[in-house]
Write a structure and sequence with these properties.
This protein is α/β, with parallel strands linked by helices. It has helices at residues 2-30, 37-46, 74-79, 81-87, 122-134, 153-160, 220-235, 246-249, 266-277, 294-298, 311-323, 327-335, 362-372, 389-392, 397-409, 473-477, 483-495, 499-502, and strands at residues 55-58, 91-94, 138-143, 172-173, 194-197, 202-205, 240-243, 282-285, 307-309, 344-348, 355-356, 379-380, 384-385, 413-417, 504-508, 515-522, 525-532, 538-542, 549-552, 558-560, 567-571, 576-581. It folds into 4 domains: 2-45; 53-146 and 220-495, Glycosidases (TIM Barrel); 153-205, Oligo-1,6-glucosidase, Domain 2 (Oligo-1,6-glucosidase, domain 2); 503-581, Sandwich (Immunoglobulin-like), CATH 2.60.40. The strands form 5 sheets. The chain has an 8-stranded parallel beta barrel, surrounded by 4 helices. β19 and β20 form a beta hairpin.
Length: 582
């Protein structure tokens, strides 16, 4: 017994010595880091997956049909995962696939916890997630929390019984508000934002179509339910959410108030919940706001959205593409520079909606219309253009390459819309946004290889310059010089230049007002990207660079320094260059 006691005393003494030793080591290791906490935090932020990826946006319904019913499905998408992997995609962003009456292409959600039968079964979704993981692909999904379908059971119960708890999940007014037709998301198509419901005997609020009543996020039960929705899909394995219409989701619907107050606290609450449930999951916000409001969405210290689409740069980018004038684009880049280290901009050329030019002046917007959408049928909602990029740029391969090279070179994460990699066109005979939501063109087989059905969910573009007979994946895969193979090569190059997503950057003077120069510095390496927005050849002059030569990453040539440390780079009309200093 004494021997056992003696062993316990020795072990206790040893334990104290070990604790003291580890405390000393911890102090010696951590003390030097106290002065560099910010640097350490920034380094940690640079490792985030969403700062180093390529995002590809698609709609399951129009991507690939596996069973011949005319509608794309998850089994069809599984068949094309190897194609996406070969292209260089890291993240698949899925448009809405939940049960819906499909009056607004799935954005009118009728069940947040299911899979629309047209896309397959929950089992098909589970298999898709497994197959994506096997290929190292992450999956993000649209989550439409701003509004529901009028066919959602919540709204049905609300309108049928005003004493139901669900009544307060929506916003109502006993009399018609004075601003019943102010703040419409779809002017020219939409008539009002407060509509009368005969069953409820009251007006309900809807920023979008009248069949999409807005949820009332002022109500704690709505916030709790939104967390359950996010938790459910995180449990299914998704890596994040594209939050639809964030500014509308967080506003309080106040009858008669044209500028309703914003409940910004919802954003960090949602972000914290998502990361608590899955540490590396993110929220990507659709928030078309002025630069002065960015901090309200990102958070002052990165406690808000991890990512936002940079609509502000996008609008001024299209002005630059249309006119060749760069000053507004440069200004927009500078105005959106400031953000928390953990935050990231998502840049795009085409998304699933119209090109929104609402932040341009009337004169500037007309200049873009004249160059890219001169016909009234090409324009939409009194603010945008409903065309794909190839038709907007006249299907000029030089301009397409320059535009997509620039997308991959902008400070942030690039987002590519399905079909853009092969230069798909649009169908202006389809209503509103559906013009750019036509089925993917896989081959020259009937209906572009999208479906064996005679009646696809939406007409496949056929005939002419952009018909599936000419523009399809199979044809471009077999052509070494195709846009598709060029895109895959450029995506590979982009991944060799991580500084674009995480490094320090600045605009370089180029000696010409038609060439945009961006310089990135990351881990001691310097990258310079040049893009000529004009049809005429330009000679770019660079100076004050570290290193004796520039290495052209596109063709392997060397640009030596001239007298005075200057560099002279020639660019063809709509030319571009990626250069590394060494």
């Amino acid at each position: 017994m004494a021997q056992v006691l003696r062993c316990r005393i020795i072990n206790s003494r040893q334990m104290k010595r070990m604790q003291a030793y580890f405390l000393l080591v911890a102090f010696m290791v951590l003390a030097p880091l106290q002065g560099s906490a910010q640097e350490a935090g920034e380094a940690h932020a640079a490792d985030r997956w969403y700062k180093r990826c390529i995002i590809y946006n698609l709609d399951v319904h129009v991507f690939k049909d596996s069973d011949g019913d005319g509608t794309g499905d998850f089994q069809g998408l599984i068949q094309k995962l190897d194609y996406l992997k070969a292209l260089g995609v890291d993240v698949i962003w899925l448009a809405p696939f939940q049960p819906s009456p499909q009056k607004d292409d799935g954005y009118d959600v009728a069940d947040y916890y299911g899979v629309d039968s047209s896309c397959g079964t929950p089992g098909d979704f589970s298999e898709f997630m497994y197959q994506a993981r096997q290929r190292g692909l992450r999956v993000m999904m649209d989550v439409v929390l701003n509004h529901t379908s009028a066919q959602h059971p919540w709204f049905k119960r609300a309108r049928e019984d005003t004493s139901s708890p669900y009544y307060h999940w929506y916003s109502w007014s006993g009399k018609r508000p004075s601003n019943y037709n102010e703040g419409m998301a779809f002017p020219g198509v939409q008539q009002e934002v407060w509509s009368y419901d005969t069953a409820a005997g009251a007006y309900y609020y809807h920023r979008f179509y009248k069949f999409q009543p807005d949820l009332n996020f002022e109500h704690p039960q709505v916030r709790a339910e939104s967390r359950r929705i996010l938790a459910y899909w995180l449990q299914q394995g998704v890596s994040g959410f594209r939050l639809d219409a964030v500014p509308f989701m967080i506003e309080k619907a106040v009858p008669g108030n044209d500028k309703p107050p914003q409940q910004y606290e919802i954003i960090p609450d949602m972000q914290r919940f998502v990361q608590w449930r899955k540490g590396d999951a993110i929220t990507l916000g659709e928030a078309n706001v002025p630069p002065s409001d960015n901090a309200k969405y990102f958070g002052e210290n990165g406690e808000g959205l991890q990512m936002m689409f940079n609509f502000y740069v996008n609008q001024h980018l299209f002005y630059a593409l249309a006119t060749g004038k760069l000053s507004l684009l440069i200004k927009a880049l500078q105005e959106t520079r400031e953000k928390p280290a953990i935050a990231q901009w998502a840049h795009f050329l085409r998304n699933h909606d119209e090109i929104d030019l609402g932040r341009l002046t009337d004169r500037q917007r007309q200049e873009v219309y004249a160059a890219m959408g001169p016909e009234k049928r090409m324009q939409l909602y009194e603010r945008g253009i409903r065309r794909r990029l190839a038709p907007m740029l006249g299907n000029d391969r030089r301009r397409l390459e320059m535009a997509y090279s620039l997308l991959l070179a902008l400070p942030g994460t690039p987002v590519i819309r399905y079909g853009e990699e092969i230069g798909m066109g649009d169908n202006l005979q389809l209503p509103e946004r559906l013009a750019i939501r036509t089925p993917m063109q896989w081959s020259a087989e009937p209906n572009g290889g999208f479906t064996t059905s005679r009646q696809p969910i939406r007409p496949v573009i056929s005939g002419g310059e952009y018909g599936y007979e000419k523009v399809n994946v199979a044809q471009q895969q077999s052509n070494a010089g195709s846009l598709l193979n060029w895109m895959a090569k450029m995506i590979k190059l982009r991944k060799q230049c991580p500084g674009i997503g995480v490094g320090d950057w600045k605009v370089l003077p180029t000696g010409t007002d038609q060439v945009l120069g961006l310089q990135y510095t990351y881990k001691g390496e310097t990258l310079i990207v040049l893009h000529n927005f004009g049809n005429a050849a330009q000679q770019v002059q660079l100076s004050s660079l570290n290193g004796n030569s520039l290495y052209n990453l596109l063709n392997g040539s060397i640009v030596p320094a001239a007298a005075g440390g200057r560099y002279y780079i020639g660019l063809d009309g709509y030319g571009y260059a990626w250069l590394r200093s060494w």
